[in-house]
């Protein structure tokens, strides 16, 4: 097997004009679309108190990044699949009369040499203007989406967003924030990781990192390894090697008490559903669930025992995720090997929710109250 190399990240940024009205109506609908390496997902929602009410949604596996690792380009078939999904999103946006929206693309478009061509194709065929966001904003929005899950007892917080093409980690020190204000302090990071002027002590971002390895890109790196357990072990250790530049990685003896990990990704929610033994996925049972390192490890060992065929047939995993679950589990295992915890909170939320919170907060249509 050739020695895997960490992929290079290229940014292709396209400015998108902001045509928002100066004075928002609190009854307006907002939309957030997240086009990742593997999935296209959208939420349409209306502000409601300090949160929002989802009016419509869309989610489809488009595999935009298929073949990107080998060629550096988005393939014609991948782009066609994605444009088809985006046409459905455009019809939903038009049907609901949505005017206030952010439509973003992440790692696959950051890395692809033909990203600008793809963005132009999307705009021509769907009239949607995609915005390629940088890793820091992706990490920040993932953190904001998880604010309601932050415990008032948490002093050190690690938010992990395992995507298709990259994984974002953000370590936040909340020890100087009054307990009751800790979730709100996380929400206020939507404007940036640097502390701004606030009437409450600010959450301190100790460090953050965007590792250019997600469930799809990590799987592609080790596709030539035939042995299932060996491939899993190699993926996990390789991912850990890529954490070397993250400053909390070099600080051993992390204290478990007052430490919380929030994991947001399809991997984490799938592991949670397997732990609960759900025959059908239920967001109400999964979102906010707390798991220990030992419980997560038991689920991962079950996945390994099933093997590729067993995982494909397991209804808790699903046929659209079975090929990616072990690379995601390898990332999760690496993180828990470094930072074992009795409190990993499962978040069925992420970039879309962060985009909605940030838009609504900036427009002043959310109540600044407890979650």
CATH class of the largest domain: Alpha Beta
What is the CATH-assigned architecture of the largest domain? 2-Layer Sandwich
Mean pLDDT: 87
Name the poorly predicted regions: 1-17
Q: Largest beta sheet, briefly?
A: 6 strands, mixed
Total number of beta strands: 11
CATH superfamily of the largest domain: Exopolyphosphatase. Domain 2
Rg from C-alpha positions? Answer: 20 Å
CATH topology of the largest domain: Nucleotidyltransferase, domain 5
Strand order of the largest sheet: 8-7-6-9-11-10
Strand content: 15-25%
Q: Termini, distance in Å?
A: 50 Å
- Overall SS class: alpha/beta
Task: Give me the number of helical elements.
Answer: 13
What would you call the shape? globular
Helix share bin:
25-40%
What does this protein structure show overall?
The structure is a single chain. The chain is an alpha/beta fold. It has two domains: 30-133, Nucleotidyltransferase, domain 5; 137-351, Nucleotidyltransferase, domain 5. Helices cover 39% and strands 19% of the residues. The chain has 13 helices and eleven strands. It has helices spanning 68-71, 76-96, 107-111, 115-126, 135-145, 182-187, 215-221, 228-241, 266-276, 283-286, 293-313, 325-338, 351-363; strands spanning 30-35, 39-48, 51-61, 100-105, 131-132, 156-162, 167-173, 204-211, 259-264, 290-291, 344-347. The strands form two sheets. It has a six-stranded mixed sheet, with helices on both faces. It has a five-stranded mixed sheet with strand order 3-2-1-4-5. Strand 2 (39-48) and strand 3 form a beta hairpin. The longest helix is centred in the N-terminal third of the chain and has 21 residues, at 76-96.
């Amino acid at each position: 097997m050739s020695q895997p190399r960490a992929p290079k990240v290229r940014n292709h940024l396209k400015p998108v004009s902001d045509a928002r009205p100066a004075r928002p109506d609190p009854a307006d609908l907002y939309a957030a679309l997240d086009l990742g390496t593997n999935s296209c997902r959208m939420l349409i929602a209306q502000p409601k108190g300090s949160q929002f009410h989802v009016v419509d949604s869309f989610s489809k596996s488009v595999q935009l990044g298929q073949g990107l690792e080998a060629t550096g380009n988005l393939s014609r078939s991948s782009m066609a699949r994605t444009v088809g999904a985006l046409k459905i999103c455009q019809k939903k946006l038009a049907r609901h009369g949505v005017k206030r929206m952010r439509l973003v693309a992440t790692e696959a478009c950051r890395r692809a040499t033909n990203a600008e061509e793809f963005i132009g194709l999307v705009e021509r065929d769907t009239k949607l203007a995609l915005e390629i966001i940088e890793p820091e904003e992706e990490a920040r929005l993932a953190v904001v989406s998880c604010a309601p899950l932050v415990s008032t007892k948490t002093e050190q917080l690690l938010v992990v967003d395992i995507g298709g093409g990259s994984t974002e980690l953000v370590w936040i020190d909340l020890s100087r924030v009054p307990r009751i204000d800790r979730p709100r302090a996380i929400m206020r990071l939507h404007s940036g990781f640097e502390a701004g002027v606030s009437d409450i002590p600010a959450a301190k971002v100790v460090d953050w990192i965007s590792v250019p390895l997600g469930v799809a890109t990590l799987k592609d790196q080790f596709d030539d390894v035939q042995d299932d357990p060996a491939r899993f072990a190699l993926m996990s250790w390789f991912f850990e090697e890529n954490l070397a530049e993250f400053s909390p990685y070099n600080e051993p003896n992390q204290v478990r008490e007052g430490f919380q990990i929030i994991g947001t990704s399809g991997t984490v929610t799938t592991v949670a559903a397997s732990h609960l033994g759900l025959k059908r996925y239920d967001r109400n049972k999964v979102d906010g669930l707390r798991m220990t390192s030992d419980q997560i490890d038991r689920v991962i060992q079950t996945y390994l025992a099933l093997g590729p065929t067993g995982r494909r047939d397991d209804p808790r995993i699903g046929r659209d995720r079975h090929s990616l679950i072990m690379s995601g589990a390898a990332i999760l295992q690496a993180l828990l090997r470094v930072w074992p915890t009795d409190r990993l909170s499962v978040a069925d939320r992420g970039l879309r929710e962060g985009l909605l919170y940030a838009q609504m907060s900036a427009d002043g249509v959310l109540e600044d109250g407890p979650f």
